[in-house]
Amino acid sequence: MTRPQNGVRGADVDLTAMHQASQQRILQRRDLGAAGQDSTVEAVARRHAKAWRIRDLDWSPAGAPVYARINAGRWQGLCPDCGGGEYLSVDEPVFWCCSCGNVSNGHRPRPVIFPAAEEREFIEAVLLERRGPVLPGGGSPRNWEPGEGLEQLVAENVARGVRVPDRVGARIAFRRRGGRR
C-alpha cells in the first residue's frame, strides 16, 4: 500500500489513471476519487474529525482565504498554519488541511480563491502545452503562483520553445491593444 495522501488511502488510488489524466488536464481533488470512497473535501474532513475526536465539525468556511496555485500540474492550496499542501477542486472552493485539521481556524474550513474562470482556463491551457513530468535539473514545468500573469507564463513557454495556444495568444494581443478582459 502506498502512503496515505490528502485523506485518501494510496492503495485505493489508480495512479496510472491519474498519470493519464494529468496529460489531459490540471488535476483537482475530484481526480483522487478512490473506488467507493467520497473524496470531497467535506467527506475527508469529517473522516479526519472523527479520527481526531472533533465533535460537531462546523463546515461553514471562515478565516483567511487560501489562494489556489498550480504545483506539478495539480490545483493546490497551502495551509497558512503548518504549510501542508492539499489538492483543491474548482467546484468545491474550500480548504481543509489534512496535516493540522485547520486547528488555528477552530477546525473550520477556509475559503479558497481561484482565478476567474476565463483566466483559469487560459492558465491551464498554457501549462498543458508543457510536456514531461519534470524539467532538466528538476522541477515541474506545470507550476503557477497567484499573482503570476498570463503574459509571464506565455513568455516562459516561448523561451522554452513550447507552443502557445492560439486563443491565449489572441487574448494577450487583445489586452495589449487596450482590451479589458
User: Helix count, per DSSP?
Assistant: 5
% residues in beta strands: 5-15%
Structural class: alpha+beta
| Secondary-structure element pattern, one letter each | HHEEEEEEHHH
Spans of at least 5 consecutive residues with low confidence: 1-11
The tally of beta strands, per DSSP, is: 6
- Give the fraction of residues assigned to helices: 25-40%
In round numbers, the mean pLDDT is 81
Query: Largest beta sheet, briefly?
Result: 3 strands, mixed
- Radius of gyration, in angstroms, nearest whole number: 18 Å
- N→C terminal distance: 47 Å
Taking strands numbered 1, 2, ... along the chain, how are they ordered across the largest sheet? 1-6-5
Number of domains: 2
Q: Specify the overall morphology.
A: elongated
Fold and architecture overview:
The model is unreliable at 1-11 (pLDDT under 50). This protein folds into 2 domains: 10-113, no CATH class; 117-176, no CATH class. Strand 2 (69-71) and strand 3 form a beta hairpin. The chain has helices spanning 15-22, 41-51, 117-128, 150-160, 166-176; strands at residues 66-67, 69-71, 74-78, 85-87, 94-95, 110-113. A 3-stranded mixed beta sheet has the order 1-6-5, with no helix packed on it. The chain is α+β, with helices and mostly antiparallel strands and 181 residues long.
